[in-house]
Amino acid sequence: MRMKKFIAILSIVSMMAVGAAGCGSSSDTATTDDTASTDTTTEESTDTSSSDWDAASAITVVSREEGSGTRGAFTELFGVVDDDDNDMTTLDAQVTNSTSVMMTTVSENEYAIGYISLGSLDESLVKAVKIDGADATAENIENGSYKVSRPFNVAVKPDLDNAVATDFMAFIMSTEGQAVVADEGYIPVADVEAYAGEAPEGSCVVGGSSSVSPLMEKLIEAYAAVNPNASIELQTSDSTTGMTSTIEGSYDIGMASRELKDEEAAELEGTVIATDGIAVIVNQGNPTDDLSVDQVKSIYLGDVTTWDAI
Length: 310
Description:
Layout: H1 2-45, E1 60-64, H2 69-78, E2 94-96, H3 99-107, E3 112-117, E4 126-128, E5 130-131, H4 138-143, E6 149-156, H5 163-172, H6 175-183, E7 202-209, H7 213-226, E8 230-237, H8 239-248, E9 253-256, H9 262-265, E10 269-283, E11 290-291, H10 293-301
Parallel strand pairs: 1-2, 1-3, 5-11, 7-8, 7-9
Antiparallel strand pairs: 3-10, 4-10, 6-9, 6-10
Helix pairs in contact: 6-7
């Protein structure tokens, strides 16, 4: 009887030992798995190779649409044209239709390069590179060290018969109007006089270049303060549309971010209201800070296709 009790007790002890060993094994396995999981997480969190700058990557060339005054001025100033002044921008370029879209496109692509109106530059989105060692600033345009600049033109028909349009033109070319130009970061016109308008009632339509449009919006706001009787509608398109629509009569005042073409000047009276620089922009993650005119030209012709070839 005692022997049977001893065997029963021994069996219970053995079962408890096996159970304890099983629990220990489970705990050990869980610890091992947790460690492996932790190691994997740590490895993933410290792996930043995908965001590192790779100079061997292809350059994403971004350009403005045909008809854009900024594109016309850019290709002329950087020599991205043939002997007959035909635009030779690489066919691989992505095309954007406004200054804002250009900045957004470059800000979202580490390897992109583009160009915009200097006065519209938003340094929280993109970086303007130096050109031949000169920073893209209004001061450097004035002192001649930054040579990539172009005029902002407005144009009207010689027989313009709109009192508001005429008065608004006088305001733009006044001391008050040119103060707005300077405040917005553009180069104002010299030798202007104080505004002496008559505050006529009525309306007019101003339209054209998307590069001139931000400045024009500020000029319209300032004019409204001195003539609340007038209503000015601003339509944003491109320089070529600005000129053709003024010739056709859809716009009272057309805007162009370039010189007027001969055929446009034959039918319109152009007035330079400001001088603007063209900023060459790259993504803020791009370490490139300075490019020469020839390097920019080679990129836009498609001769240079990777950043390490600069």
